[in-house]
Design a protein that fits this description.
Chain B: It is a multi-pass membrane protein. The complex is a heterodimer of chains A (271) and B (282). Chain A is an alpha/beta fold and 271 residues long. In chain A, the strands form 2 sheets. A 6-stranded mixed sheet of chain A has the order 6-7-8-3-9-10, with helices on both faces. In chain A, strands 2-1-4-5 form a 4-stranded antiparallel sheet, covered by helices on one side. In chain A, β7, α6 and β8 form a beta-alpha-beta unit. Chain A has 8 helices and 10 strands. Chain A is globular, with a radius of gyration of 19 Å. Helices cover 32% and strands 24% of the residues of chain A. Chain B is mostly helical and 282 residues long. Chain B is built from 10 helices and no strands. The longest helix of chain B is centred in the N-terminal third of the chain and has 44 residues. The chains are: A alpha/beta (271), B mainly alpha (282). Chains A and B meet through α3, α5 and α6 of A and α7 and α8 of B.
Chain lengths: 271, 282
């Protein structure tokens, strides 16, 4: 299950550099960031706030263009949004004027495709939302909304799922439920998942590999293999191995923050 | 998963709930007073009876002359007996209102959609829109009558001028509500600019558009009646000036009553449309 090295590279970040032009000068968000994600691997990206995690993910989705460097999907340079890449946003990002059915069929509507109703029904039941198709987002709890948004992201059968702090707004209990759900779905239909999170526990529970990003400008600072077998139970989170790993990652992040205090964060970028 | 029971419940922070609804408040349209119980109905009816009956009693008791203020029953009788004479004028007013509103609202909507796409253009145009909104278009009616005569035309133009800017500023507020996450969602599926407009921006603007249409329609009604009072021999506004000049106060107030009902119907129409199409924001 964790033979990462044997997997072919699905998504590659090559020397990714992103400069934001702001009123107070240029802001270097990513600086020659390199990352490889294997096929059907689950990789979490953690790091201090504002370290460029979201910038990295949005670049991987093709929604943001990089200032320098490139993103390779199956070896092909990504030039924009790609049908093979599904996105799950912070908070559910459902359209409040559409019921769940219409929300989940939104991607098909945009693409002018006939929705795969059988697959959508399967997914809805899979996440426990069978029979909720006529409900509006405001009638659902935060967890249910986020489950619907996962169904929406999976409805087009993407081979890559990018998740941008999807459960950050949920309470911890719902969050753990969602983490198990993601793993279950992944065991059902293996997908390459890149998962941005603030929670080291969440990252460890879900991932084959946890990537620590440095403070801005973001670069990969450390990587940790997570060797536990799947399906993972919540008991595993109480073991000494997880405890040690959590602490190691925490130390890495805290240490990097201290070092960053001495460096200049905003740079005048010439190119 | 046997470990579930052992998980302690941490404090909830459910920012996801209601995150989409904070931008504008549709309370003017969708959360109007809803009747909740029989007791409330009884209370509302009792107050109505008290006010109308009280007015009737006081006006009769103090023998207030009809040319000052006729009692409600007299106004109501006048409404019934005079209605066949008033009805054609009501029709004229409605024609002016509908035509002027259709023209003004369409132009207002299109302009709102266009200028909000070009922020620079919006900056240039904004002061003039404000001028159009704050200037009472009634002031232009004498000029319009000079140019366009005493028919429907000056009134329709006045209604359009009054309604259009109202629709426009409110719709523009709606179109300006940029939710970058929702637009990113559409873009991630390869949506075109036009698709983003129709499937994200327009629905997001709809509640404010409805508010604009309602305000525009009510301003349109005011302007239509006002214009009719200035000149021309027909319309409810003309009835008001005619009846008051002949001191036919029951008939005068019957027309006022019709205008009130018309205004309430406009409000209810948009209230119901809002409830059906924009209730997601309430």
């Amino acid at each position: 299950m964790n033979a990462v090295d044997a997997k072919p590279v699905k998504l590659a970040v090559r020397s990714a550099t992103k400069v934001y032009r702001t009123a107070s000068g240029d802001l270097l968000a990513l600086d020659r960031c390199n990352l490889e994600i294997g096929r059907n691997e689950i990789v979490s990206v953690v790091g201090p706030s504002g370290c460029g995690k979201t910038t990295l993910l949005w670049s991987m989705s093709g929604l943001h263009s990089l200032t320098q460097g490139e993103i390779l999907l199956d070896g092909q340079a990504l030039t924009g949004p790609h049908p093979d890449i599904g996105l799950v946003f912070q908070e559910a990002n459902l359209l409040p004027w559409r019921d769940l059915d219409a929300n989940i069929r939104f991607p098909f509507e945009i693409k002018g495709q006939t929705p795969d109703n059988e697959w959508i029904d399967h997914l809805l039941h899979r996440v426990g939302l069978g029979g909720f198709g006529g409900k509006y987002p405001r009638e659902l709890s935060g967890g249910m909304q986020q489950r619907a948004s996962i169904v929406r992201a999976l409805s087009l059968k993407p081979s890559v799922l990018l998740m941008d702090e999807p459960f950050g707004a949920l309470d911890s209990f719902t969050r753990e439920e969602m983490n198990r759900l993601v793993e279950e779905i992944w065991l059902d239909t293996p997908t390459t998942i890149v998962f941005i999170t603030h929670s080291i526990e969440e990252a460890i529970f879900l991932s084959d590999r946890v990537v620590v990003l440095s403070p801005r400008p973001g670069r990969v600072q450390a990587e940790y293999e997570v060797p536990f077998p799947r399906p993972r139970s919540l008991e595993i989170m109480a073991t000494k191995e997880v405890f040690d790993l959590t602490n190691a990652i925490k130390r890495e992040i805290v240490g990097s923050r201290k070092r960053a205090g001495e460096t200049v964060r905003e740079v005048q970028h010439a190119s | 998963m046997s470990g579930t029971d052992a998980i302690p419940e941490f404090p909830k922070r459910s920012a996801a709930d209601g995150a989409d609804v904070s931008l504008t408040n549709m309370s003017a349209l969708t959360s109007g007073p809803g009747v909740r119980s029989l007791w409330e109905v009884a209370a509302i009816a009792a107050v109505a009876v008290l006010i109308i009956g009280g007015a009737e009693f006081l006006l009769r008791f103090f023998q207030v002359p009809h040319y000052v203020l006729p009692p409600p029953s007299t106004i109501f009788m006048a409404l019934i007996t005079e209605f066949p004479h008033i009805a054609p004028h009501l029709g004229h007013t409605l024609v002016e209102l509908l035509a002027g509103f259709a023209i003004g609202a369409s132009i207002g909507l299109v302009m709102a959609a266009v200028i909000t796409q070009v922020p620079f253009l919006e900056k240039i145009i904004a002061p003039y829109i404000l001028l159009l909104v704050t200037t009472p278009m009634l002031a232009l009616v004498p000029l319009l009558i000079l140019r366009l005569g005493f028919g429907y035309e000056p009134r329709i133009v006045a209604v359009a001028l009054a309604a259009g800017p109202m629709v426009m500023i409110n719709a523009a507020t709606g179109f300006r509500r940029v939710d970058s996450a929702k637009i990113a969602l559409a873009r991630s599926y390869g949506a075109s600019t036009l698709q983003i407009f129709w499937k994200i921006r327009a629905p997001m603007a709809l509640p404010m558009i409805l508010v604009g249409l309602m305000i525009g329609a009510i301003f349109g009604l005011l302007t239509a009646v006002g214009a009719e009072m200035v000149g021309g021999g027909f319309g409810l506004g003309n009835r008001l000036t005619t009846y008051s000049s002949m001191i036919q106060m029951p008939q005068f107030f019957a027309v006022v009553l019709i205008l009130s009902i018309l205004g309430i119907l406009i409000y209810m129409l948009f209230f119901l449309i809002g409830k059906k199409w924009a209730s997601w924001e309430a």
